[in-house]
Design brief:
CATH architecture of the largest domain in chain B: Up-down Bundle
Structural class of chain B: mainly alpha
Helix content of chain B: 40-55%
Number of helices of chain B: 15
Number of domains of chain B: 2
Number of strands of chain B: 4
Strand order of the largest sheet of chain B: 1-2-4-3
Distance between the termini of chain A: 20 Å
CATH topology of one domain in chain A: DNA primase, PRIM domain
CATH class of one domain in chain A: Alpha Beta
Shape of chain B: globular
Number of helices of chain A: 13
Oligomer: heterodimer
Distance between the termini of chain B: 41 Å
CATH topology of the largest domain in chain B: Transcription Elongation Factor S-II, Chain A
Radius of gyration of chain A: 25 Å
Helix content of chain A: 25-40%
CATH architecture of one domain in chain A: Alpha-Beta Complex
Largest sheet of chain B: 4 strands, antiparallel
Chain lengths: 433, 378
């Protein structure tokens, strides 16, 4: 936590307020775990999972195992972790060192990070604060204009618009999982199907239970690439885009090296996409030349990606650029590393996210449009507490609008206070009476 | 069933024949059996020559099956692992041809097709394959497909370039068969391993053929029949691991092959020697391998000599099997430098006997570590 408005605070008062703030958060989290135990989801095959948690001081504990749900809940109540994690993998001996755990399989998971979708609205609501003097940075500079410190905290204050972007990706992902991968819609009985969660802060997690748990990491990479549409444009260009390539080579005279790189890139990138497969506004391939894809290949009734592109374009004449745009629009921007890493521990459903104090909660696909994380994932109590808010834009929680605030002492419901403390925008000045 | 066994003698039920045969090997000394012994011998000879056994005159189904088993017995009696592999590859290719024909039969629900799908795809490989009668494709469950396809490094096999629908990947017959061909190869090898036979205990007629085969192998002069792939002492564990994989006839990844080739070139091996290392790879193609190795050695293309990737790069590719002996080296080439292994001992006055004169530590011009991955299979 940072110093007071305008004055340089002593390091002891700063560390005191930090300790007071952490105490308040721990209290809020503890109340949650006592009052909302039923929301904590014990994973299936709990004895085969590795658990881990982080403390509010930033330290991490891993390689834990649980006998049953009761032991898990007891840990949450006694230790009050800042974040609680559980492996997506099933192990023979989950508490042993990584190389001795004995991997048996892992849920197929997808992480949709809204930050990676680069929502336009983020410029409207995100704020950057100097961690030294609490001054807000209004430009993109990397150092504070007031004290010169380079410790800048980029605070994301999500709005419904950017949450909607994440929902759109979830819907695309679920559609591909059902249509192409044959996963049964959503099931909440643990026997299979798709389960969608709000991550508790700025993203969504999608779990696929059942038949795909035995896939190895290489197979998961293939599925990630499938979702990202990675490599599809390359293959289409190689197969149907001859005229485009020839034209470019002739026109620029330096096409050889470039087209070679593209055609031999193998597992590399889709055209116009960066490493993660997201758009980086890359060069246009083949110009406006018509793509030589036979109409039957992109037929709307076709299966898989070709059918999807065909339905999206719905036109007989397709240009290379329009197919590229279609792939960009239809691909799902999942985080590749999360899906491929089978040893990862992943936030446990029903626990609180220390970046926001909101809970990781399940949601039904059929009701995704009406899901409001600022209402449906906010469970901290509403007793009033006093905090000092460094800076906060207007935000809504549990249907109540707060702010904007700037360097002021305010009384807030605990859920709003802990939200701002988690974001690093507020702190507790004095110990509660 | 016999019809199927005649074409695919390696499927599980052939084991019963083997057990039966254990008691009757001596019968093959008798003159009426000489034709089947000849047939078995020709089968092995095809493998020695690296071709697919394709007899002009067709034998009875029983003779086909028995000739396969006798061939296995003879191959095993030579005790040449290189011949085991050649034989397995030859039989796998033979089966591949039959599979394509059987599955591509005009009448899709013919008995052969269904038998093959049930007995071989499902029974042997555990792959549930469904025939789509409208457009001559096979449908494999996504997870089954990925189990095999991730071994291939060509973009053709990537899931994104496949038709995927309702949990199934749609494949042409040829692709479906290619997908499991390596499994047939492994299966024949496994069958060979299980056969317990000693040359001394063979009937005289078979002993004669085995001796003749050994002579033929010597005559052909394929070094791999006589000597192990390469002396491995003194190589770092990452390299040993790849050599072992190659020796076992498995299919190392592209990055593993690049590592092996750049390492061997790095310690001064010649292009010929390096190419030989890959001859056991199931998809070995001498021309392609030579091209790639020469490319890495800087003799082709952009004339850039590719250096051996650093240990951290090797680790990031999942190819590092660090042992205590690795100590604190940062590049596989440094392994054994202080221990007098295959490494070169540069700067310590000892140029290993088996190390070429130049190039081991030469910086390549231009590229970052590991080189660009522009190559197809080595």
């Amino acid at each position: 936590m940072s110093g007071d408005d305008g004055s340089s605070s002593s390091s002891s008062s700063s560390s005191n307020s930090r300790a007071y703030s952490i105490n308040l958060l721990k209290q809020a989290f503890k109340e949650y775990y006592f009052n909302h135990t039923h929301l904590v989801e014990a994973p299936d095959a709990i004895q085969e999972r590795e658990f881990g948690y982080s403390r509010f001081d930033g330290t991490m504990v891993r390689h834990l195992s649980m006998r049953d749900r009761r032991e898990l809940v007891a840990l949450l109540m006694v230790n009050v972790p800042a974040d609680m994690y559980c492996s997506t993998a099933y192990y023979t001996s989950p508490s042993r060192p990584m190389e001795e755990k004995g991997l048996k399989g892992a849920d197929l998971i997808f992480d949709i990070d809204i930050k990676e979708l680069k929502p336009r609205c983020s410029a409207m609501h995100d704020i950057r604060i100097c961690e030294e003097c609490s001054e807000e940075l209004h430009d993109q500079s990397t150092a504070c204009g007031r004290c010169g410190s380079s410790r800048v905290n980029h605070v994301i204050m999500p709005c419904n618009e950017c949450i909607s972007l994440g929902k759109r990706e979830v819907k695309k992902l679920v559609e591909i999982l059902v249509d192409d991968f044959g996963v049964d819609g959503e099931g909440d009985d643990g026997s299979g199907g798709i389960r969608v969660y709000f991550s508790g802060n700025y993203g969504f997690h999608v779990y696929v239970k059942g038949r795909y748990t035995t896939l190895d990491s290489a197979a998961r990479r293939e599925i990630v690439d499938y979702m990202l549409g990675r490599g599809l444009m390359d293959a289409l260009t190689r197969r149907y885009g001859r005229r485009g390539r020839r034209g470019r080579k002739g026109a620029y005279g330096r096409g050889r090296g470039r087209s070679k790189r593209r055609s031999m890139g193998g597992r590399g990138r889709g055209v116009g996409t960066n490493d993660a497969g997201y758009s980086d506004g890359g060069e246009e391939v083949g110009g406006n030349d018509p793509l030589h894809i036979p109409a039957s290949i992109l037929a709307a009734e076709g299966y898989g990606w070709m059918g999807r592109i065909g339905r999206y374009l719905g036109a007989e004449r397709v240009s290379m650029k329009s197919v590229e745009d279609a792939i960009l629009a239809l691909s799902v921007k999942v985080d590749p590393n999360v899906t491929m890493d089978m040893h990862r521990i992943f936030r446990l459903p029903g626990t609180l996210n220390s970046k926001s104090s909101l809970a990781k909660v399940p949601l039904m696909i059929s009701e995704i449009d009406s899901f409001d994380p600022f209402e449906d994932a906010c469970f901290i109590s509403d007793r009033e507490v006093g905090v000092h808010v460094v800076r906060a834009p207007r935000f809504t929680l549990k249907g109540n609008v707060f702010g904007p605030y700037a360097h002021e002492d305010v009384k807030l419901p605990l859920y709003a206070a802990s939200y701002l403390i988690c974001k690093g925008l507020a702190y507790v000045k004095q110990p509660p009476a | 069933m016999n019809r199927l066994l005649a074409r695919y003698p390696f499927v599980a039920d052939a084991g019963d024949y083997l057990r039966l045969l254990d008691y009757r090997l001596e019968e093959f000394d008798e003159p009426p059996m000489s034709s089947v012994v000849d047939r078995a011998t020709r089968r092995v000879m095809a493998a020695v020559k690296g071709i697919v056994y394709d007899p002009e005159e067709h034998a009875s189904m029983d003779e086909e099956i028995v000739s396969f088993i006798l061939a296995c017995v003879m191959v095993k009696a030579t005790k040449s692992r290189a011949l085991y592999r050649r034989f397995a590859l030859s039989e796998a290719k033979r089966a591949e041809g039959f599979l394509v024909n059987d599955l591509d039969a005009v009448n899709k629900d013919s008995r052969d097709t269904m038998e093959v799908l049930n007995s071989i795809f499902k029974g042997v490989f555990g792959v549930e394959a469904i025939h789509s009668s409208d457009d001559s494709t096979l449908m494999l469950r996504v997870e089954d497909y990925l189990r095999y396809s991730t071994r291939f490094h060509d973009g053709h096999w990537r899931l994104i370039n496949r038709v995927v629908h309702k949990g199934y990947v749609h494949l042409s017959i040829r692709d479906a068969v290619r997908l499991v061909r390596d499994e047939i190869y492994a299966l024949v090898l496994e069958r060979l391993e299980r056969i317990q036979v000693e040359y001394e205990h063979l009937p005289e007629a078979l002993q004669r053929r085995v001796t003749a085969l050994k002579g033929m192998m010597l005559e052909i002069g394929r070094e791999e029949f006589i000597e192990p792939v390469m002396e491995r002492r003194g190589y770092p564990p990452c390299i040993i691991n790849i050599l072992k994989a190659l020796e076992q006839g498995s299919n190392p990844s592209h990055t593993a092959r690049v590592l092996l080739a750049t390492y061997m070139l790095g310690i001064g091996k010649g292009v010929d020697e390096v190419c030989k290392l890959f001859r056991n790879a199931p998809d070995y193609n001498e021309r392609v391998t030579r091209y790639q190795v020469e490319h890495l050695a800087g003799l082709r293309g952009n004339r850039i000599r590719y250096s051996c990737p650093s240990c951290s790069k090797v680790a990031s590719q999942g190819l590092c099997f660090k042992s205590d002996e690795c100590d604190s080296i940062t590049n596989p080439l440094q392994f054994g430098r202080y221990k007098g292994g295959a490494g070169r001992g540069r700067g310590y006055g000892s140029r290993g006997e088996d190390v070429g004169a130049d190039g081991a530590y030469e910086r390549k011009e231009g590229e970052g570590e590991g080189g660009r991955e522009e190559h197809e299979e080595v």
